[in-house]
Amino acid sequence: MLKVENLHAVVDGKEILKGLSLEIPAGQVHAIMGPNGAGKSTLSYVLTGRDGYEVIEGSATLDGEDLLALAPDVRAARGVFLSFQYPLEIPGVPALTFIRTALNAQRRARGEDEVSAPAFLKLAREKAAALKIDFEMLKRALNVGFSGGEKKRMEILQMAMLSPRFLILDETDSGLDIDALRIVADGVNALRSPDRAMLVITHYQRLLDYIKPDRVHVLAGGRIVASGGPELAHELERGGYERYEQAA
Amino acid sequence: MAAVKQTVEHVESLEKYKHGFVTDIEQDFAPKGLNADIVRFISAKKNEPEWMLAWRLDAFERWLAMDEPDWAKVSFPKIDYQDSYYYAAPKEKVGIKSLDEVDPDILETYKKLGIPLREQEVLAGVVGAPRYAVDAVFDSVSVVTTFKKELAQVGVIFCSMSEAIREHPELVKTYLGSVVPVSDNYFACLNAAVFSDGSFVYVPPGVRCPMELSTYFRINAENSGQFERTLIIADKGAYVSYLEGCTAPMRDENQLHAAVVELVTLDDAEIKYSTVQNWYPGDPETGRGGIYNFVTKRADCRGDRSKVSWTQVETGSAITWKYPSCILRGDGSSGEFYSIAITNGRQQADTGTKMIHLGKDTRSRIISKGISAGRSSNTYRGLVSAHPKATGARNFTQCDSLLIGKHCAAHTVPYIEARNGKAKFEHEATTTRLSEDQLFYVMQRGLSQEEAVQLLVNGFVKDVLQELPMEFAVEAQKLVAISLEGSVG
Questions:
Q1: A50 to chain B nearest CA, in Å?
Q2: Residue range B209-219: average pLDDT?
């Protein structure tokens, strides 16, 4: 599924990723942990094509296709989805309108028919109920005046509606209380499937109690400095990142 | 009395000049330039009665004594009023003969607007398009007046101003210039002297106009100014909704559009006036060409409990300088102003409204959304005032500006005058920049950059779009998208 090789990326003239390599096969969930400033968010932006995140060396492919050559919206249509650490407010655009516009844009890009209004509403009701989102809330402008937890749930709802193949969750647990965390994690787990891959970026091991990773990587100094099974996350929780920061 | 005497003298002198113009009347352009003879030419060309000519000549005299105002936050080279045609009637030989001769960009715009080809031909001014085409659109002459019979059945008069002057002189005499006096301002005064045509609407007491009335204006001829004049009267308890659309082809020269719109509502009457203005904005890089849109629009809520609502979507013109206003004279009358003003490229807009509260318990509401992109400048200028007698006057104003890119400017200039202690005015204003974070967020969900800008901008202007009649809202939404194309990145 995702293959990243020797990735070097520059932001504001400063090299943040310094030879990062990572491979996530279809059906697997990988977690990336690491200290502040290690380049975790940079990796998510580089993979999704944000302006200002310049790749100077290396490659990133999704099922063999060069991701880095594609515009952000094209990557989205190919099935790349980023759940933002800080979801943006979109004044004047109801959540339902927003999601439907996005879904149809992606479908058009893939040469598929637009989804009909009744089919869309049915799907939205279903997915919202699963995430315990009041359907009335979807008629309000996306994320405007929503609490931190509501915003994160809205991200997962979008993910469920857009049905991506490769999912990146950037600090999805931040700002969530334990109940909200469980709802969000259930939503994410419902999306696990043999033809999807996920990259979970997190500071803390807590989220990984709910979303069990197949592999855990430590990102420090712009590179993956250690990889292991789920037990690595527990080890990090106990020992901290210091050891790895020195190694980097 | 002196003024009257002067007018009489002018009417007399006209008699002498008239003959000199007999042959000229046959032509389709008035000679270039502006003088009393041109005013006579226009009046004669339109077979106007003498009182109308006298009115025009009086306006012309006054105009000569006036100075062009310069207080707006716009800049442009001095206009040479002698270097323009003041009357241009469409004639086959000056028209465009086939769609191939029409600028492809304009056709593309129409296509994007979803106007079907037949109508496209109409709007592009193709000679030989359906008969109503020539009547429908451009330059100085005539307006679309379909459904006339159906309207007449309920007593609604909807015709061109020229026709109204001939057929309904008493109404015209009573109301013309009663809201925007002849010498109200420089451009309105010029309009009074040389106005060519426009729409006239009269809705009799108690009648709810059974359909939306609409007019498409179009400047077509080169070097010609357009001075249309619209007068709408809603008699007691009447209601009418009127739509105005504007387009113009690309020209290297600047063209002056100095229209006057007067609305009158009597007791319990309501007028809803919507504009989608898409005049040619000039070259986005050099700023060459484009329309100077210097328009005076004013409503007089003369009757108690009467209501006027202005909604405008301003996307075109090199310079827009207009303030659709309401004089809230009747007790309990109310005025609304909903505006979307978009500037891109090198466009300049200085627009807003005036709500003049004169009657008791009058209300007004202003929602203005300004969007600036490119190297443009967008100013909201508004006045809310309450007369000492306007106790209980209330106003709510919200002015939001959105900046796209780093080289544009937005300004908000609100004037508030409360001359009694029982008026309640509220003013809210925000300025935001379309953030790269938002753009990226939307693009990550699968929208292209232009689609993302459209979505965000449509969200920004939603409060105003929903005030437009349904069909117009769709058109306006597309216009918003077209006018912001290429504004990012």
A1: 7
A2: 72
